[in-house]
Amino acid sequence: MTDRSLNLNLFIYPDGHHEAAWRYPGSQPDRILDLGWFQALAQRAEAAAFDAVFFADGPALAENIQYAPRFRLEPITLLAGIAAATSRIGLIATASTTYYEPYNLARLFASVDHLSHGRVGWNIVTTSSPAAARNFGLEEHPAHAARYARAEEFVDVVTKLWDSWEDDAIIADAASGLYADPAKIHAIEHVGRHFRVRGPLNAPRSPQGRPVYVQAGSSEDGRGFAARHAEAIFTAHQTLGAAQAFYADIKARALGVGRRPEHIKILPGLSPFIGSTQAEARALQEQFNALTQPAYSLQQLRQMLGVDFSGHDLDAPFPRHLIQPENSQAVASRFQVVLDIVDREQPTLRGLLHRLAGARGHFVMAGTPDQVADHIETWFTQGAADGFNVMPPWLPGGFEIFADEVVPILRRRGLFRSAYAGSTLRDHLGLPRPPSLYNQPARQLAS
Amino acid sequence: MTDRSLNLNLFIYPDGHHEAAWRYPGSQPDRILDLGWFQALAQRAEAAAFDAVFFADGPALAENIQYAPRFRLEPITLLAGIAAATSRIGLIATASTTYYEPYNLARLFASVDHLSHGRVGWNIVTTSSPAAARNFGLEEHPAHAARYARAEEFVDVVTKLWDSWEDDAIIADAASGLYADPAKIHAIEHVGRHFRVRGPLNAPRSPQGRPVYVQAGSSEDGRGFAARHAEAIFTAHQTLGAAQAFYADIKARALGVGRRPEHIKILPGLSPFIGSTQAEARALQEQFNALTQPAYSLQQLRQMLGVDFSGHDLDAPFPRHLIQPENSQAVASRFQVVLDIVDREQPTLRGLLHRLAGARGHFVMAGTPDQVADHIETWFTQGAADGFNVMPPWLPGGFEIFADEVVPILRRRGLFRSAYAGSTLRDHLGLPRPPSLYNQPARQLAS
């Protein structure tokens, strides 16, 4: 084993990440509202000693529900149900700083950290879907910078809430009748631009002290936020060079704010089609792409680029000139990724749709188990990644093949653990357990 | 078996309902943050064929945490963790219409209804603790009437969200590629005084259609709300007469708004100390009361009455004249209950504190299993109750005795089921599964 060990998450879309996964022969779309389905996936990932399962989220219905199961079970409750059927694997859910109240969100994650004995992570998002605004009384989705300003203060508030009980606040001395030491439970008295929150949290400090802070923004605001707060970053890159540049930038920014670079794990997405030969893997990918529906794919592309390409010839060269950087509805984290694919590969419109069908702009590859392991090793050893968010094209099969065929190779190469060394998600990621802010008298506590 | 069957919930306070439960010999206060603790309690209640487990909640820390474990795990996540270890018992959590956004709350409960295959209930509260306001940016807790006005609209919004997918919206036809029928997924376009919510919900309709609507208010506003919306009511009464009056009033109000009275189950709280003789039961209750701490009890009394009696002689007659109906900080649902105890029993201050130590104003009794069964049968058959929220003084022992000793008597008397007949909470309660509002073209859908 090298000094560093890969961190691997299983990123679960109910049916898999490829947009046509539910149409693949043998898929079981009738099971994807069943807790047992998700528990079994997490148990498989736990058997492979993965760091965590990971769930995306957004508080609005996807427009393309007509063509694929793009609904969302609420992921924090889903984690609680999965926690009950697993014992070691980490549990990461996405939740929005734009559309939650910090006191409610702090409670939900702290509770699941208790229920799971310290296995929870929070993927901090500001929500990119403009449709969410109209589910929360807003006419317009707040602008990117405004969302990040709120997110910054939101993280400050929930951090204080999670720290508001010192670790040794509970005494539970039946003889004297003292249950908790009130001097170790702190009102946070937060007064800021977006929030006024008195606190304390109404539950004891959770096993990890704070859930692990995960983040996925790649904009300038997002990178600054990540450098200050993130302990794991989920990111999308199509080339080694782009991934290396991002990796170097984030680690440098972390150093710049006084953090240790190894305390921010950078985890690009990876969606592998695996075959016993490369030709077989490519044929499998083609089989999936043949099941895609342009109406779905075009809606997704519109969200990424802010341009509707419906009605354009699918088999003509992609009309690059229609993309403008200022397209306001675009998802910042995907805009440049898609543009780079277009400029590098000069695809047809259909070709671009197929390129994005597998994982929405994340890296998709078709190869043998050794080729997939080579890719992982290269990015891991060449300064592009600390690990990966594995995004199986379909489930459970697409993950089973990865676990059965690729993971053993990674172990033989000394890149990945064969068993858990610790019991919390912080243990798996090699992250320290933060002391409570309120247990450091010298530290400035003012908001 | 009579036509009617008792409905029995297990109301879980982590260590039990008596304020000194955690000090009782053999209690395990170190286990009450452990999911396994709650799963085992729910499994015991399920083995007794109880309708549901029930959790209270409030988004602020209780002031008397110094003296007892009055923290709160977030109960919706707790239900999800319990769902994973049970298969039939209903799962009811409390959540606040004052401090949640309706879209977030609708998602949380719908998800757990999916994960539990249709076993969830929502106890709708407007939150009585003034401290909550300051965790959500408000200087003052909204007034009672304002909270109920928001609650009314909140329930309207979440009902529309839960109905926004018709039951047969999912097609999942892999051959054609049609996953869902967009004509059966409805934007709710709610525009009201408190909320603007476009919808639809971002998940399919849940197994029960809507989680069961539970409620606990007993004020005039609360009763009107209950008559319109509640399917189960948790209520506190000290005498048969008071319970009968409440029961008759609610059932009449339900009829008045065109609902079937049997679709509102009225469930008073009952906290029994059980012994093989009445003397033994009373001695047990005395043992608990001897463990109470006046500082805790006085804080609780202050919340109920809006008056601080600290410093008064505990063994002098209770200073009744200090109570004023207009004490603004009082909890409406408890104020009259406490006043009635005072006027009927003329206790000392300490005596009153002991009367409230068991279950915060709910009915506490000490008796043999037959006496407890007699009480239940009397209230059930004399128009005072459809069932009970059983509030064991301590856990798990206080519930085990009830399940082992009282439940068999209720069964022999034909009052309570010996096994579940259905699989959802609506089944257990004899409640219909509501069709979607959007599946009734003749019905007025305007908000």
From TrEMBL, chains A, B:
Keywords: Flavoprotein, FMN, Monooxygenase, Oxidoreductase. It comes from the Bacteria. FMN binds at residues 57, 94, 144, 148, 218-219. The keyword Oxidoreductase applies. Gene3D superfamilies: Luciferase-like domain. Residues 35-384 form the Luciferase-like domain. GO terms for molecular function: monooxygenase activity; oxidoreductase activity, acting on paired donors, with incorporation or reduction of molecular oxygen. InterPro entries: Diverse_substr_monoxygenases, Luciferase-like_dom, Luciferase-like_sf, NTA_MOA. NCBIfam families: FMN_nitrolo (TIGR03860). Belongs to the NtaA/SnaA/DszA monooxygenase family. This is FMN-dependent oxidoreductase (Nitrilotriacetate monooxygenase family).
